[in-house]
């Protein structure tokens, strides 16, 4: 074992992101390196600090690799936020993962200068999960209190005519059952760990798994650590974090999301799939969110990033 | 890996040594964590981590309830609430054999409903109830033992500082923990009172009946507890009902208790500042220990100690309940030496992962709740066990003529009743989980 | 300070999206402000059981020893958090709603750490006086409120 890496992340050792994504990825790289690379995974922030610190930890070399949510450090990844916006991300995880990869060098690289990015990905997207109120269109969300998933989620909730509420994920079940929030914008994959089928009645998404935006994640390595790797081992990392892997990642998150909604439906919850018209009504209200986001980011060409992201996602979605 | 284990064990020994030579627990943990991590990994790693570890750890929304509840309890101790509570309880119970001691326990429970601290409960109720217990010629042993044990109701009944810290460490909802603590807390009151009932029958003359009060005094004394009931209902009831989060609720509690203090007892500016300073001392101390625990956790994780312990347990073939009993015993031993809060902060990060891997037939969240309440009781016992029992020290301060040995002896019956309660809660998790399940709908 | 954050909490108790981020930010600053005071009044819990029987001079020596730890800690944290502020000013992380830069917490925290350094110096000097059998400047209340 010539090179040992610590991989730090914030979820528990039983989360699908750990067991189905990070562990197999690390194993594959170890195997492909013929044992010259060893990756020690530390889940649950066990190497200290809180989740927002993960990015600085890898930048500073406190740990060697992190898996983290970009939105935990608002302000650091404004360009990548484009992929979280509703109507930019609609339903295709793989296409979005590939689009981020395709646009990395020309558009996104400046905000990752402090690290070496191995891959970026998104989850299945924000669905609406409601305690007791059924939602069939934008009229139904007016005046509600909704838990937001991250900084880009605030604008989405406000555009729905609802009040955004920030809270740590573990507090969600309690808040739903006491009515502190009426619902949450959050993917279905969170249902099993939080047992959300007990505190919600309705799971709502658009047709063909269309969602209200998503969350971007990164797996990054400390720069000095990367620079110290011989080329053949760099290649091992790169080969196992490329297009084929990004499609697998998409499938892992889709499967986790499907498992979540199945659990809710099996326990008697209602899975509401909005009609095309209803989803269009929502999107009409959400389009200003994109315009507002563009106007808030003047230090780079935000409009071009959005347009290019939509193009690239459409390109990969069409299947080539 | 073996090197890591040796280093880890060496670190723990250094920790014990430094604690023994009176280095503050927080700095002990900081020192061992820093030095250990520097040896285990490159020093630069830890130095870089220190750039923002403190900010990141202290800027935690859930932790912000801590200073609020501490301030609320600090104000409550300066308002004369304890006198009203004791007077009412005594009006109802005082006429019974051992009744004044039972009234003191009910008073402690009432005060515990506003204060999150055990020692504050012991010292506040002690000042009110000890003179009465002696006036009615209770045996010094029973009198001081009752107050020392009754003080623990301060953390057994929500709000509870220890519970808040536990909830943050294992990441369970604070409201759920408060809900879970209520029924076991009431059982504790019942068991304590039963203990007094039994004690005065087994030891004749230890707790003579007080006087029966006229109906008028009964009514007027009872009216005196209305403010406590109202404040508890608004603060804790409001949290249970989901009207507000614990932090704003505690802030509301601070205002209500403050208003009550001004109106009822003429709470003045100087006392208010005292309460603020007390809050600053206690909060600063707790956060510093939390910071030390984080550094210690980093060191141990890098040395591979938790991983090795988990592997040892999973291959040892011990059943879940055996492990649980061992953990309880470990906490009881620690409790002889340490205060309850340091113990939770120091030991829960080591023991919780072990428990989390075991199958008790509960979901992960319910396991956190159930284990938390059991641990709450066990660490609370540390406050009344020799040689270091903070509550006993405080009572000793209030009743200087009673030798500390007598107070420790007086506490033993209550200690026994607590062991029975732990066994009950271990055997029937549903008792603890009833209220959280109801709240979850 | 606590009162101020209590009031801010009351004001922000109703749905106001910045409630969480402001409370967190302010609490972190306030806690660092508490630390010098804790050091000065000896609020940090110790375990006294093994040292109960020791002489005054031994205890005083241990007091100096403990103060030196606090001193080293304050100095180390002061230097590293100074660098931390640099990092937060270079990579400007902000709060989600108000977009308040996080580095704004660092200047008051650094000042507090400076005071902690000073407080540890004072308690160390106090310990030395104690060791030499001179009268103390300060009387230290013990924090027993917590548990
Ligand atoms: Na309490
Ligand atoms: Na003890």
UniProtKB/TrEMBL annotation, chain B:
It comes from the Bacteria. GO terms for molecular function: transmembrane transporter activity. Its main location: membrane. InterPro entries: DctM, TRAP_DctM. It holds the Pfam family DctM. It is found in: Cell inner membrane. Part of the tripartite ATP-independent periplasmic (TRAP) transport system. Belongs to the TRAP transporter large permease family. This is TRAP transporter large permease protein.
UniProtKB/TrEMBL annotation, chain C:
Keywords: Cell inner membrane, Cell membrane, Membrane, Transmembrane, Transmembrane helix, Transport. The keyword Thylakoid does not apply. Signal peptide: none annotated. GO terms for molecular function: transmembrane transporter activity. Its main location: membrane. Residues 3-129 form the Tripartite ATP-independent periplasmic transporters DctQ component domain. InterPro entries: DctQ (IPR055348). The chain crosses the membrane at residues 27-50, 62-82, 102-125. Pfam families: DctQ. It is found in: Cell inner membrane; Cell membrane. GO terms for cellular component: plasma membrane. It is a multi-pass membrane protein. The complex comprises the extracytoplasmic solute receptor protein and the two transmembrane proteins. Belongs to the TRAP transporter small permease family. Part of the tripartite ATP-independent periplasmic (TRAP) transport system. This is TRAP transporter small permease protein. The lineage of its organism: Bacteria, Pseudomonadati, Pseudomonadota, Alphaproteobacteria, Hyphomicrobiales.
């Amino acid at each position: 074992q010539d090179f040992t890496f610590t991989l730090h992340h914030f979820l528990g050792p039983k989360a699908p992101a750990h067991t189905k994504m990070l562990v197999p990825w690390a194993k594959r790289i170890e195997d492909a390196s013929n044992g010259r690379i060893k990756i020690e995974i530390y889940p649950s922030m066990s190497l200290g600090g809180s989740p927002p610190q993960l990015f600085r930890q890898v930048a500073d070399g406190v740990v060697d690799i992190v898996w983290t949510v970009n939105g935990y450090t608002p302000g650091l990844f404004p360009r990548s936020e484009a992929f979280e916006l509703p109507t930019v991300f609609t339903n295709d995880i793989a296409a979005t993962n590939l689009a981020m990869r395709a646009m990395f060098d020309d558009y996104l690289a400046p905000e990752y200068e402090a690290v070496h990015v191995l891959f970026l990905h998104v989850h299945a997207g924000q669905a609406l999960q409601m305690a007791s109120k059924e939602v069939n269109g934008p009229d139904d969300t007016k005046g509600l209190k909704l838990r937001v998933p991250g900084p880009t989620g605030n604008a989405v909730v406000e555009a729905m005519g609802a009040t955004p509420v920030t809270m740590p994920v573990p507090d969600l079940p309690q808040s739903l059952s006491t009515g502190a929030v009426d619902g949450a914008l959050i993917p279905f994959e969170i249902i099993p760990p939080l047992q959300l089928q007990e505190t919600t009645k309705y799971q709502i998404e658009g047709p063909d798994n269309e969602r209200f935006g998503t969350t971007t994640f990164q797996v990054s390595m400390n720069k000095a650590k990367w620079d110290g790797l011989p080329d053949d081992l760099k290649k091992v990392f790169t080969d196992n974090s490329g297009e084929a892997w990004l499609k697998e990642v998409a499938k892992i998150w889709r499967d986790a999301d499907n498992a979540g909604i199945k659990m809710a439906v099996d326990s008697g919850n209602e899975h509401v799939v909005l009609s095309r018209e209803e989803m269009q009504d929502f999107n009409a209200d959400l389009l200003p969110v994109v315009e507002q986001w563009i106007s808030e980011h003047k230090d780079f060409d935000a409009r071009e990033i959005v347009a290019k992201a939509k193009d690239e996602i459409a390109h990969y979605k069409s299947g080539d | 890996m073996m090197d890591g284990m040796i280093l880890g064990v060496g670190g723990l020994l250094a920790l014990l040594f430094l604690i023994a030579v009176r280095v503050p627990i927080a700095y002990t943990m900081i020192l061992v964590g820093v030095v250990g991590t520097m040896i285990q990994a490159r020093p630069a790693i830890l130095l870089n981590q220190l750039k923002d570890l403190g900010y990141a750890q202290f800027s935690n929304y859930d932790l912000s309830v801590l200073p609020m509840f501490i301030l609320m309890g600090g104000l409550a101790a300066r308002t004369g609430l304890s006198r009203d509570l004791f007077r009412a309880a005594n009006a109802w119970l005082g006429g019974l054999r051992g009744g004044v001691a039972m009234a003191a326990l009910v008073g402690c429970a009432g005060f515990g409903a506003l204060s999150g601290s055990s020692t504050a409960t012991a010292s506040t109720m002690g000042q009110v109830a000890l003179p009465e217990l002696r006036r009615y010629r209770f045996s010094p042993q029973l009198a001081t033992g009752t107050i020392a044990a009754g003080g623990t109701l301060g953390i057994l009944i929500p709000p509870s500082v220890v519970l808040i810290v536990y909830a943050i460490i294992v990441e369970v909802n604070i409201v759920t923990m408060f809900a879970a603590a209520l029924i076991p807390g009431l059982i504790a009151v019942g068991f304590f009172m039963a203990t007094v009932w039994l004690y005065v029958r087994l030891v004749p003359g230890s707790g003579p009946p007080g006087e029966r009060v006229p109906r008028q005094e009964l009514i007027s004394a009872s009216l005196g507890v209305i403010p406590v009931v109202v404040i508890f209902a608004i603060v804790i009831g409001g949290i249970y009902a989901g009207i507000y989060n614990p932090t704003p609720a505690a802030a509301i509690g601070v205002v209500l208790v403050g208003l009550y203090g001004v109106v009822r007892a003429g709470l003045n500016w100087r006392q208010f500042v005292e309460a603020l300073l007390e809050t600053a001392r206690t909060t600063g101390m707790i956060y510093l220990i939390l910071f030390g625990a984080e550094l210690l956790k980093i060191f141990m994780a890098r040395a591979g100690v938790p991983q090795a312990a988990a592997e040892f347990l999973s291959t040892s073939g011990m059943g879940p309940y055996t492990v649980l009993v061992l953990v309880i015993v470990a906490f009881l031993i620690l409790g002889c030496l340490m205060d309850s809060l340091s113990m939770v902060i120091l030991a829960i990060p080591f023991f919780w992962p072990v428990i989390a891997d075991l199958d008790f037939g509960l979901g992960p969240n319910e396991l956190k709740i159930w284990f938390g309440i059991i641990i709450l009781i066990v660490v609370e016992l540390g406050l009344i066990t020799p040689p270091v029992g903070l509550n006993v020290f405080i009572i000793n301060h209030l009743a200087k003529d009673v030798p500390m040995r007598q107070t420790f002896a007086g506490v033993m019956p209550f200690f026994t009743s607590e062991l029975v309660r732990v066994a009950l809660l271990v055997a029937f998790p549903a008792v603890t989980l009833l209220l959280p399940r109801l709240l979850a709908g | 300070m606590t009162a101020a954050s209590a009031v801010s909490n009351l004001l922000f108790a109703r749905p106001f999206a910045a409630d969480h981020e402001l409370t967190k930010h302010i609490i972190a600053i306030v806690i660092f402000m508490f630390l010098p005071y804790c050091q000065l009044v000896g609020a940090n819990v110790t375990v006294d059981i093994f040292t109960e029987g020791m002489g005054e001079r031994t205890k005083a020596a241990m007091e100096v020893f403990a103060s030196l730890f606090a001193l080293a800690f304050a100095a180390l944290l002061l230097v590293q958090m100074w660098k931390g502020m640099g990092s937060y000013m270079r990579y400007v992380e902000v709060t989600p709603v108000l977009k308040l830069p996080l580095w704004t917490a660092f200047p008051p925290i650094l000042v507090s750490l400076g005071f902690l350094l000073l407080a540890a110096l004072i308690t160390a000097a106090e310990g030395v006086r104690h060791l030499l059998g001179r009268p103390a400047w300060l009387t230290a209340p013990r924090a027993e409120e917590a548990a």
